[in-house]
């Protein structure tokens, strides 16, 4: 008898990640490292497009290959995959960003999504020419998005604000989508105020469900006061294996070459350089301590020992990880942005082990059951395989 897998009733999007700053098998080690090469990004993008991931996030920052140029290249080599690319208020002009938006949305035939990244590292931002304090960066982002939104919607823009002035701005060529959706991941009060007013999808790094629930409630309240509704997404790494032992062994292996000095340096740098509330919340989960990495059932903070931003992973069997995802779904999450080291292999593991729990990827070509080969013995093919070997 064939048992049907439990299919999640709540639809959700499972995105993946293009590691434009490089990839590898061990954090904190140069061994088995993969440099940021377009050919490798292309392998990942084509794999995840085929596997049924609907989209990928491309990060932005000093250490990353430019997300717009990378996404433009990848869009030409993929069919359905959507690209979540950063909008950078303060770093580029809103008119230039709107024109790029239209161009990439047209080139990709409507596969562009935007992640509004205001930035949480004043040292890096100073290098980019941005010197505003934390909350004022959000005031600037608000003006930026008003101009961007009007332009991509086909309006002529005259704007005289505190940070931007535009006279008779317009796009002659408009995006394919009515307006490419805006994603956003700031955790501060000012960030949530911006989200309430301007964005479509509010993102959080992978905090435990109770903390995510609080964040969602507060963002939802703020949006409701403006008469708006938000969608919610979470960013997590994944270590899914057939057995729990294998999964935890893979987690241990991933951080097995990190030295204590590397952890201290990374944590001190995050504290000293960054004013991001989201980053502080991530760091507080483990305090830089190897003995405090289990921050919830199947929720492990090992990645955050040396990586800024997304620092937690769901670790376990497909059933365990699926249960944890359902807990997040129950509090309102409808989009997961996953990743795993290395990103190509872990994309396959997630697709092959976890997707069947949610009925994702069902558009992949199904093998005929009556074909005899080494993967289909047990159906009608068993005897024929024997006969042919
Ligand atoms: C899912 C997600 C993705 C993010 N991607 C980036 C990124 O690529 N580059 C970056 O500098 N910040 C990124 N951030 C950080 C935020 O955009 C934000 O600038 C930062 O957290 C500071 O805001 P806060 O103080 O309001 O938390 C991301 C945040 C989230 C939740």
Fold and architecture overview:
The longest helix is centred in the middle third of the chain and has 19 residues, at 134-152. Helix 5 runs parallel beside helix 6. The strands form 3 sheets. This protein has an 8-stranded parallel β-barrel, surrounded by 8 helices. Strands 2-3 form a two-stranded antiparallel ribbon. A two-stranded antiparallel sheet has the order 7-8. With 389 residues, the protein is α/β, with parallel strands linked by helices. The radius of gyration is 22 Å and the shape is globular. It has 13 helices and 15 strands. Mean pLDDT is 93; it is low at 1-8. The structure holds flavin mononucleotide. Flavin mononucleotide (FMN) is lined by residues 59-61, 86, 115, 117-120, 185-188, 191, 203-205, 235, 276-278, 309, 337. Residues 59-61, 86, 115, 117-120, 185-188, 191, 203-205, 235, 276-278, 309, 337 line the site of flavin mononucleotide.
Quick take:
It catalyses: an alkanesulfonate + FMNH2 + O2 = an aldehyde + FMN + sulfite + H2O + 2 H(+). The chain is of the alpha/beta class.
């Amino acid at each position: 008898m064939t048992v049907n897998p439990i299919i999640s009733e709540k639809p959700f999007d499972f995105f993946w990640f293009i590691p434009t700053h490089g990839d590898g098998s061990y954090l904190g080690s140069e061994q088995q490292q993969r440099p940021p090469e377009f050919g490798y990004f292309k392998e990942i993008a084509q794999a995840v497009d085929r596997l049924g991931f609907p989209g990928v996030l491309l990060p932005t920052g000093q250490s990353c290959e430019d997300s717009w140029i990378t996404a433009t290249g990848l869009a030409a080599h993929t069919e359905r995959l959507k690209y979540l690319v950063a909008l950078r208020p303060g770093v580029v002009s809103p008119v230039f960003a709107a024109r790029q938006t239209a161009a990439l949305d047209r080139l990709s035939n409507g596969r562009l999504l935007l992640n509004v990244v205001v930035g949480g590292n004043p040292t890096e931002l100073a290098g980019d020419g941005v010197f505003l304090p934390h909350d004022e960066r959000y005031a600037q982002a608000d003006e930026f998005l008003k101009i961007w939104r009007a332009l991509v919607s086909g309006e002529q823009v005259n704007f005289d604000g505190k940070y931007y002035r535009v006279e008779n701005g317009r796009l002659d060529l408009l995006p394919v989508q009515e307006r490419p959706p805006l994603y956003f991941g700031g955790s501060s009060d000012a960030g949530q105020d911006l989200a309430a007013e301007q964005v479509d999808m509010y993102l959080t790094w992978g905090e435990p469900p109770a903390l995510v629930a609080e964040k969602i409630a507060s963002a939802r309240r703020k949006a409701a006061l403006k008469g708006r509704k938000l969608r919610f997404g979470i960013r997590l790494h994944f270590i899914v294996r057939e057995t729990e032992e294998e999964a935890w062994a893979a987690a241990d292996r991933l951080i097995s070459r990190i030295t204590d000095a590397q952890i201290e340096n990374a944590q001190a740098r995050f504290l000293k350089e960054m004013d991001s509330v989201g980053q502080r919340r991530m760091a507080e989960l483990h305090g830089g301590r190897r003995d405090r990495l289990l921050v919830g059932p199947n929720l492990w903070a090992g990645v955050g020992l040396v990586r800024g931003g997304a620092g937690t992973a769901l670790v376990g069997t497909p059933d365990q990880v699926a249960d944890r995802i359902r807990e997040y779904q129950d509090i309102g999450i409808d989009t997961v942005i996953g990743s795993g080291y290395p990103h190509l292999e872990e994309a396959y593991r997630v697709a092959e082990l976890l997707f069947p729990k949610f009925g994702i990827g069902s558009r992949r070509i199904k093998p005929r059951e009556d074909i005899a080969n080494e993967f289909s013995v047990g159906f009608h093919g068993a005897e024929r395989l024997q006969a042919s070997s």
